[in-house]
Design goal:
Pathway: Cofactor biosynthesis; coenzyme A biosynthesis; CoA from (R)-pantothenate: step 1/5. The protein is α/β, with parallel strands linked by helices. It has a single domain, classed as P-loop containing nucleotide triphosphate hydrolases (Rossmann fold, 3-Layer(aba) Sandwich). Helices cover about 40% and strands about 20% of the residues. The protein has 9 helices and 9 strands. The chain has helices at about 15-20, 25-30, 45-50, 60-90, 110-120, 145-150, 165-175, 240-255, 270-295, and strands at about 20-25, 100-105, 130-135, 180-185, 190-200, 205-210, 230-235, 305-310, 315-320. A 7-stranded mixed β-sheet has the order 1-9-8-7-2-6-3, sandwiched between helices. Strand 4 and strand 5 form a beta hairpin. Helix 4 crosses helix 5 and helix 8 (about 240-255) crosses helix 9 (about 270-295). The longest helix is centred in the N-terminal third of the chain and has 33 residues, at about 60-90. The protein is globular.
Protein backbone atom coordinates (compact mmCIF):
# COMPACT_ATOMS: atom_id res chain seq x y z
CA UNK A 1 0.00 0.00 0.00
CA UNK A 2 1.05 3.58 -0.53
CA UNK A 3 3.37 4.80 2.20
CA UNK A 4 3.52 1.41 3.92
CA UNK A 5 6.91 -0.03 4.98
CA UNK A 6 7.86 -2.68 2.45
CA UNK A 7 9.17 -5.05 5.12
CA UNK A 8 5.73 -5.27 6.72
CA UNK A 9 4.41 -8.35 4.92
CA UNK A 10 1.35 -9.09 7.05
CA UNK A 11 -1.77 -8.20 5.02
CA UNK A 12 -3.83 -5.34 6.33
CA UNK A 13 -7.61 -5.54 6.70
CA UNK A 14 -7.91 -3.45 3.56
CA UNK A 15 -5.67 -5.86 1.64
CA UNK A 16 -7.61 -8.89 2.89
CA UNK A 17 -10.83 -7.25 1.71
CA UNK A 18 -9.21 -6.53 -1.64
CA UNK A 19 -8.11 -10.14 -2.10
CA UNK A 20 -11.63 -11.33 -1.24
CA UNK A 21 -12.94 -9.19 -4.09
CA UNK A 22 -11.13 -11.40 -6.61
CA UNK A 23 -11.45 -14.92 -7.91
CA UNK A 24 -7.98 -16.49 -8.03
CA UNK A 25 -6.83 -18.89 -10.75
CA UNK A 26 -3.69 -20.93 -11.18
CA UNK A 27 -2.17 -20.93 -14.65
CA UNK A 28 -3.73 -24.34 -15.58
CA UNK A 29 -7.14 -23.24 -14.27
CA UNK A 30 -7.04 -20.06 -16.31
CA UNK A 31 -5.76 -21.85 -19.44
CA UNK A 32 -8.77 -24.20 -19.31
CA UNK A 33 -11.07 -21.18 -19.78
CA UNK A 34 -9.80 -20.79 -23.34
CA UNK A 35 -12.53 -23.26 -24.36
CA UNK A 36 -12.44 -23.47 -28.18
CA UNK A 37 -10.89 -20.05 -28.83
CA UNK A 38 -8.61 -20.53 -31.84
CA UNK A 39 -4.95 -19.55 -31.91
CA UNK A 40 -4.78 -16.72 -34.45
CA UNK A 41 -1.10 -15.76 -34.13
CA UNK A 42 1.77 -17.53 -35.85
CA UNK A 43 5.22 -18.08 -34.40
CA UNK A 44 6.45 -15.26 -36.64
CA UNK A 45 3.73 -12.95 -35.26
CA UNK A 46 4.80 -13.77 -31.71
CA UNK A 47 8.46 -13.10 -32.48
CA UNK A 48 7.58 -9.68 -33.92
CA UNK A 49 5.57 -8.73 -30.82
CA UNK A 50 8.21 -9.70 -28.26
CA UNK A 51 9.64 -6.83 -26.19
CA UNK A 52 13.26 -5.94 -25.47
CA UNK A 53 14.92 -8.53 -23.19
CA UNK A 54 11.57 -10.21 -22.58
CA UNK A 55 10.45 -13.79 -23.15
CA UNK A 56 7.21 -14.45 -25.00
CA UNK A 57 6.40 -18.05 -25.80
CA UNK A 58 3.65 -19.74 -27.73
CA UNK A 59 2.44 -21.34 -24.49
CA UNK A 60 2.06 -17.89 -22.91
CA UNK A 61 -0.17 -16.79 -25.77
CA UNK A 62 -2.23 -19.98 -25.59
CA UNK A 63 -2.54 -20.24 -21.80
CA UNK A 64 -2.92 -16.56 -20.87
CA UNK A 65 -3.96 -14.44 -23.84
CA UNK A 66 -6.52 -16.73 -25.48
CA UNK A 67 -8.68 -17.09 -22.35
CA UNK A 68 -8.40 -13.32 -21.83
CA UNK A 69 -9.39 -12.60 -25.42
CA UNK A 70 -12.42 -14.86 -25.01
CA UNK A 71 -13.43 -13.02 -21.84
CA UNK A 72 -12.99 -9.62 -23.48
CA UNK A 73 -14.95 -10.66 -26.56
CA UNK A 74 -17.86 -11.56 -24.29
CA UNK A 75 -17.42 -8.30 -22.35
CA UNK A 76 -17.43 -6.19 -25.52
CA UNK A 77 -20.62 -7.89 -26.74
CA UNK A 78 -22.31 -7.30 -23.38
CA UNK A 79 -21.23 -3.64 -23.29
CA UNK A 80 -22.64 -3.10 -26.76
CA UNK A 81 -25.92 -4.64 -25.69
CA UNK A 82 -26.19 -2.29 -22.72
CA UNK A 83 -25.37 0.64 -24.97
CA UNK A 84 -28.22 -0.26 -27.31
CA UNK A 85 -30.59 -0.51 -24.34
CA UNK A 86 -29.67 3.01 -23.20
CA UNK A 87 -29.96 4.46 -26.70
CA UNK A 88 -33.38 2.83 -27.08
CA UNK A 89 -34.47 4.35 -23.77
CA UNK A 90 -33.29 7.79 -24.91
CA UNK A 91 -35.01 7.39 -28.27
CA UNK A 92 -31.91 7.92 -30.36
CA UNK A 93 -30.09 5.82 -32.98
CA UNK A 94 -27.86 3.16 -31.51
CA UNK A 95 -24.19 4.15 -31.29
CA UNK A 96 -21.24 1.93 -30.46
CA UNK A 97 -18.64 3.83 -28.44
CA UNK A 98 -15.16 2.29 -28.28
CA UNK A 99 -14.54 -0.29 -25.57
CA UNK A 100 -11.52 1.00 -23.64
CA UNK A 101 -9.05 -1.29 -21.85
CA UNK A 102 -6.50 0.19 -19.44
CA UNK A 103 -3.22 -1.64 -18.80
CA UNK A 104 -1.07 -0.64 -15.81
CA UNK A 105 2.07 -1.83 -14.05
CA UNK A 106 5.70 -0.98 -13.33
CA UNK A 107 8.46 0.03 -15.69
CA UNK A 108 10.03 -3.14 -17.20
CA UNK A 109 7.22 -5.47 -16.08
CA UNK A 110 6.16 -6.18 -19.67
CA UNK A 111 3.14 -3.89 -20.17
CA UNK A 112 4.09 -2.86 -23.70
CA UNK A 113 4.52 -6.43 -24.95
CA UNK A 114 1.31 -7.43 -23.21
CA UNK A 115 -0.57 -4.56 -24.91
CA UNK A 116 0.82 -5.39 -28.37
CA UNK A 117 -0.08 -9.07 -28.10
CA UNK A 118 -3.55 -8.28 -26.81
CA UNK A 119 -4.10 -5.83 -29.66
CA UNK A 120 -3.02 -8.40 -32.24
CA UNK A 121 -5.29 -11.12 -30.84
CA UNK A 122 -8.36 -8.93 -30.31
CA UNK A 123 -8.08 -7.49 -33.83
CA UNK A 124 -8.53 -11.02 -35.21
CA UNK A 125 -12.01 -11.37 -33.73
CA UNK A 126 -14.52 -10.67 -36.55
CA UNK A 127 -16.83 -8.53 -34.37
CA UNK A 128 -14.23 -5.87 -33.48
CA UNK A 129 -11.39 -5.76 -36.01
CA UNK A 130 -10.37 -2.14 -35.37
CA UNK A 131 -8.20 -2.18 -32.25
CA UNK A 132 -6.06 0.88 -31.49
CA UNK A 133 -3.18 1.06 -29.01
CA UNK A 134 -2.04 4.26 -27.30
CA UNK A 135 0.59 4.57 -24.57
CA UNK A 136 0.67 7.29 -21.94
CA UNK A 137 4.28 8.13 -22.84
CA UNK A 138 2.92 10.55 -25.41
CA UNK A 139 1.24 12.53 -22.64
CA UNK A 140 4.49 13.20 -20.80
CA UNK A 141 5.47 16.85 -20.83
CA UNK A 142 8.27 17.58 -23.32
CA UNK A 143 11.81 17.47 -21.96
CA UNK A 144 12.11 21.27 -22.09
CA UNK A 145 9.06 21.62 -19.82
CA UNK A 146 10.27 18.93 -17.42
CA UNK A 147 13.68 20.58 -17.20
CA UNK A 148 12.19 24.00 -16.56
CA UNK A 149 10.12 22.54 -13.72
CA UNK A 150 12.97 20.46 -12.27
CA UNK A 151 11.14 17.22 -13.02
CA UNK A 152 13.58 15.23 -15.16
CA UNK A 153 14.38 13.00 -12.19
CA UNK A 154 10.63 12.55 -11.66
CA UNK A 155 9.85 11.44 -15.20
CA UNK A 156 7.08 8.86 -15.06
CA UNK A 157 5.72 10.23 -11.77
CA UNK A 158 2.17 11.66 -11.94
CA UNK A 159 3.36 15.29 -12.04
CA UNK A 160 5.36 14.64 -15.22
CA UNK A 161 2.23 13.99 -17.31
CA UNK A 162 -0.15 16.42 -18.99
CA UNK A 163 -3.17 14.85 -17.31
CA UNK A 164 -5.61 17.41 -18.70
CA UNK A 165 -4.60 16.51 -22.25
CA UNK A 166 -4.80 12.80 -21.44
CA UNK A 167 -8.33 13.10 -20.05
CA UNK A 168 -9.42 15.21 -23.02
CA UNK A 169 -8.11 12.54 -25.38
CA UNK A 170 -9.97 9.72 -23.63
CA UNK A 171 -13.18 11.74 -23.42
CA UNK A 172 -13.08 12.50 -27.14
CA UNK A 173 -12.46 8.85 -28.05
CA UNK A 174 -15.26 7.64 -25.79
CA UNK A 175 -17.61 10.26 -27.23
CA UNK A 176 -17.03 8.81 -30.70
CA UNK A 177 -15.20 11.75 -32.25
CA UNK A 178 -14.20 10.78 -35.82
CA UNK A 179 -10.52 11.63 -35.40
CA UNK A 180 -8.68 12.12 -32.11
CA UNK A 181 -4.92 12.90 -32.20
CA UNK A 182 -2.49 11.72 -29.52
CA UNK A 183 1.09 13.01 -29.16
CA UNK A 184 3.94 10.65 -30.00
CA UNK A 185 6.90 9.86 -27.76
CA UNK A 186 10.36 8.68 -28.87
CA UNK A 187 12.17 6.29 -26.54
CA UNK A 188 15.29 6.96 -28.58
CA UNK A 189 15.40 10.73 -27.98
CA UNK A 190 13.56 10.36 -24.65
CA UNK A 191 11.20 13.17 -25.65
CA UNK A 192 7.92 14.07 -27.34
CA UNK A 193 8.28 14.17 -31.13
CA UNK A 194 7.42 17.76 -32.17
CA UNK A 195 4.48 18.03 -34.56
CA UNK A 196 3.89 14.27 -34.78
CA UNK A 197 0.61 12.66 -33.73
CA UNK A 198 -1.05 9.26 -33.77
CA UNK A 199 -4.64 9.66 -34.90
CA UNK A 200 -7.32 7.38 -33.46
CA UNK A 201 -10.30 6.95 -35.78
CA UNK A 202 -13.31 5.45 -34.00
CA UNK A 203 -11.82 2.09 -33.08
CA UNK A 204 -13.95 -0.79 -31.86
CA UNK A 205 -11.48 -1.19 -28.97
CA UNK A 206 -8.85 1.16 -27.58
CA UNK A 207 -6.03 -0.25 -25.46
CA UNK A 208 -4.55 2.48 -23.25
CA UNK A 209 -1.28 1.41 -21.63
CA UNK A 210 0.96 3.13 -19.10
CA UNK A 211 2.31 3.48 -15.59
CA UNK A 212 -0.32 5.88 -14.39
CA UNK A 213 -3.58 4.76 -15.98
CA UNK A 214 -5.16 3.55 -12.70
CA UNK A 215 -3.86 6.34 -10.49
CA UNK A 216 -6.20 8.84 -8.88
CA UNK A 217 -5.71 12.42 -7.76
CA UNK A 218 -7.45 13.99 -4.81
CA UNK A 219 -10.01 16.51 -6.01
CA UNK A 220 -9.69 15.61 -9.70
CA UNK A 221 -13.14 15.74 -11.35
CA UNK A 222 -12.26 12.99 -13.85
CA UNK A 223 -9.73 10.17 -13.89
CA UNK A 224 -8.36 8.17 -16.80
CA UNK A 225 -9.94 5.04 -15.32
CA UNK A 226 -13.39 6.67 -15.48
CA UNK A 227 -13.32 5.92 -19.21
CA UNK A 228 -12.22 2.28 -18.91
CA UNK A 229 -14.54 -0.64 -19.52
CA UNK A 230 -11.90 -3.10 -18.35
CA UNK A 231 -8.48 -2.81 -16.71
CA UNK A 232 -5.44 -5.04 -16.27
CA UNK A 233 -2.52 -4.75 -13.84
CA UNK A 234 0.64 -6.64 -14.79
CA UNK A 235 2.37 -7.60 -11.54
CA UNK A 236 5.60 -9.24 -10.35
CA UNK A 237 7.97 -9.27 -7.39
CA UNK A 238 10.07 -6.11 -7.10
CA UNK A 239 13.29 -8.12 -7.28
CA UNK A 240 12.22 -9.72 -10.57
CA UNK A 241 11.28 -6.37 -12.13
CA UNK A 242 14.57 -4.83 -11.01
CA UNK A 243 16.52 -7.63 -12.70
CA UNK A 244 14.47 -7.31 -15.89
CA UNK A 245 15.18 -3.58 -15.89
CA UNK A 246 18.93 -4.16 -15.55
CA UNK A 247 19.00 -6.75 -18.32
CA UNK A 248 16.99 -4.49 -20.60
CA UNK A 249 19.44 -1.65 -19.91
CA UNK A 250 22.37 -3.88 -20.94
CA UNK A 251 20.64 -4.87 -24.16
CA UNK A 252 19.74 -1.28 -25.02
CA UNK A 253 23.34 -0.28 -24.32
CA UNK A 254 24.40 -2.57 -27.18
CA UNK A 255 21.62 -1.44 -29.53
CA UNK A 256 19.58 1.77 -29.17
CA UNK A 257 22.16 3.61 -27.05
CA UNK A 258 24.66 3.26 -29.92
CA UNK A 259 22.60 5.50 -32.20
CA UNK A 260 23.79 9.14 -32.51
CA UNK A 261 20.39 10.61 -31.56
CA UNK A 262 19.98 8.45 -28.44
CA UNK A 263 19.44 10.40 -25.23
CA UNK A 264 21.39 7.67 -23.39
CA UNK A 265 24.32 7.58 -25.80
CA UNK A 266 26.66 8.61 -22.98
CA UNK A 267 26.25 5.09 -21.55
CA UNK A 268 27.01 3.19 -24.75
CA UNK A 269 30.62 2.26 -23.98
CA UNK A 270 30.44 1.67 -20.24
CA UNK A 271 31.94 -1.62 -19.07
CA UNK A 272 29.32 -4.17 -18.05
CA UNK A 273 29.74 -3.67 -14.29
CA UNK A 274 29.52 0.12 -14.59
CA UNK A 275 26.46 -0.18 -16.80
CA UNK A 276 24.80 -2.45 -14.24
CA UNK A 277 25.66 0.07 -11.55
CA UNK A 278 24.04 2.87 -13.55
CA UNK A 279 20.93 0.77 -14.23
CA UNK A 280 20.64 -0.14 -10.56
CA UNK A 281 20.97 3.49 -9.53
CA UNK A 282 18.25 4.62 -11.98
CA UNK A 283 15.98 1.81 -10.77
CA UNK A 284 16.50 2.56 -7.08
CA UNK A 285 16.31 6.37 -7.34
CA UNK A 286 13.47 6.74 -9.86
CA UNK A 287 11.56 3.65 -10.91
CA UNK A 288 11.35 1.83 -7.59
CA UNK A 289 10.10 4.87 -5.62
CA UNK A 290 7.52 5.53 -8.35
CA UNK A 291 6.38 1.90 -8.18
CA UNK A 292 6.01 2.00 -4.40
CA UNK A 293 4.50 5.47 -4.11
CA UNK A 294 2.25 5.75 -7.16
CA UNK A 295 1.77 2.50 -9.08
CA UNK A 296 1.70 -0.53 -6.79
CA UNK A 297 -1.27 0.62 -4.73
CA UNK A 298 -3.42 0.89 -7.89
CA UNK A 299 -3.22 -2.88 -8.38
CA UNK A 300 -6.38 -3.45 -6.35
CA UNK A 301 -8.32 -1.11 -8.67
CA UNK A 302 -7.80 -3.38 -11.69
CA UNK A 303 -10.40 -5.84 -12.95
CA UNK A 304 -7.70 -8.37 -13.75
CA UNK A 305 -4.30 -8.88 -12.08
CA UNK A 306 -1.65 -11.01 -13.81
CA UNK A 307 1.20 -12.12 -11.52
CA UNK A 308 4.44 -13.04 -13.29
CA UNK A 309 7.26 -15.27 -12.08
CA UNK A 310 10.99 -14.75 -12.55
CA UNK A 311 10.81 -16.25 -16.07
CA UNK A 312 8.22 -13.65 -17.26
CA UNK A 313 5.52 -16.32 -17.35
CA UNK A 314 2.20 -15.52 -15.69
CA UNK A 315 1.74 -17.82 -12.69
CA UNK A 316 -1.43 -16.51 -11.04
CA UNK A 317 -4.49 -14.66 -12.29
CA UNK A 318 -6.97 -12.68 -10.20
CA UNK A 319 -10.28 -11.65 -11.72
CA UNK A 320 -12.46 -9.17 -9.81
CA UNK A 321 -15.86 -10.50 -8.86
CA UNK A 322 -18.79 -8.79 -10.56
Amino acid sequence: MKGRPMNDLAPTAEERAGLAAYRRFSRPEWAALRANTPLSLSTRDIDSLRGVAEELSLSEVVDIFLPLSRLLNLQVAAARGLGVVQDTFLGRPAALPPYIIGIAGSVAVGKSTFARVLQAILARWPDHPKVALITTDGFLYPTAVLESRGLMQRKGFPESYDLRRMISFLAAVKAGEPEVPAPVYSHLTYDIVPGKTQVVRRPDILIFEGLNVLQHSAGAPLLASDFFDFSVYVDAEEAHIAEWYRQRFLLLQRTAFQQPESYFRRYKDLPREEALSVATRIWEQINLPNLRENIQYTRERARLVLRKGADHRVQEIRLRRM
